[in-house]
Write a structure and sequence with these properties.
single chain, alpha+beta, Methyltransferase, Cobalt-precorrin-4 Transmethylase, Domain 2, 2 domains, 4-stranded antiparallel β-sheet
């Protein structure tokens, strides 16, 4: 839960590489680049999330409040939150929280740390160097450190999609195949199904009725792996070649379902 205690905790930090303090500046491209930089810096420093805090006076670091609402802006005809989400690769979860403390308003933005490889915005990866946002490619030493930090993460626990509603999860994952393979009857409602998916490590239950699909969940039970970004490269492909050499393919078929979901079909 994000409340005044979270705000006080963040304000108690000196500005570090996974926390950015702003007063009223919320230019959309700049915020998008900070989403990349803070996600990568949080991962580098072993933090679960990065933060932007609006309401802090430049220079003095005094908490003075803000009128900014970065969510209210549009980029073209598109809500800016959708624009940011489309341009972040891989997709990572971020959310806004409005906090009023003793009549003074702050706006907080939290973003998930980079899950398995660096997060880019609009094709460029960013990082925080001290209190400054920099292009990751311009700092190869820091880039090596980030990859080393990400390399210690378990692939299966990485996030394939984030910030989904329960209904979206049930559309993306073949949960019926899970229950068939477990030789158990299908749970009675969506909440029970989601709870079982979380228990098996296939999804992560986040606060606010949102869910993340893990790499394990996608690779095993996706209806279509191509709906999960780079995991689309992991689809199974059957190729029959003409003759003893691989010079000419006679027949080729791609299977886009997750591996366990395919097995579940074979068992039917």
């Amino acid at each position: 839960m994000t409340d005044a205690s979270t705000l006080h905790h963040l304000l108690g930090h000196r500005e570090c590489e996974w926390i950015e303090f702003k007063h009223n500046d919320a230019e959309p491209t700049d915020v998008g680049e900070y989403l990349s930089a803070l996600a990568n810096s949080a991962a580098l420093h072993g933090q679960e999330t990065g933060w932007i805090v609006w309401g802090v006076e430049d220079g003095t670091r005094r908490f003075v409040g803000t009128d900014v609402d970065a969510r209210a802006r549009k980029k073209g005809n598109e809500p800016v939150e959708n624009w940011w989400a489309h341009l972040l690769e891989p997709r990572v979860d971020f959310s806004f929280h409005e906090v009023v403390d003793h009549g003074v308003r702050a706006m907080l933005l939290t973003i998930q740390a980079a899950p398995a490889f660096p997060v880019a915005f609009h094709g460029t990866e960013w990082i925080r160097i001290g209190s400054t946002k920099k292009k990751l490619a311009d700092h190869p030493g820091r880039e090596r450190e980030l990859w080393a930090a990400l390399g210690h993460k378990c692939f299966e626990e990485g996030l394939a999609r984030s910030g989904l509603l329960g209904g979206q999860v049930l559309e993306l994952l073949d949960h019926r195949a899970l229950f068939r393979l477990l030789q158990q009857p299908l749970a009675s409602d969506g909440s029970a199904i989601l709870a079982r998916l979380a228990m098996e490590g296939l999804v992560v239950d986040r606060e606010g009725d949102r869910y993340d699909v893990t790499n394990l969940g996608a690779v095993l039970f996706a209806h279509d792996l191509r709906q999960f970004g780079s995991l689309g490269r992991k689809t199974l492909r059957f190729v029959r070649y003409r003759g003893p050499h691989r010079g000419e393919a006679e027949y080729e078929q791609e299977f886009v379902k997750g591996y366990a979901a395919l097995l579940g079909l074979r068992l039917m």
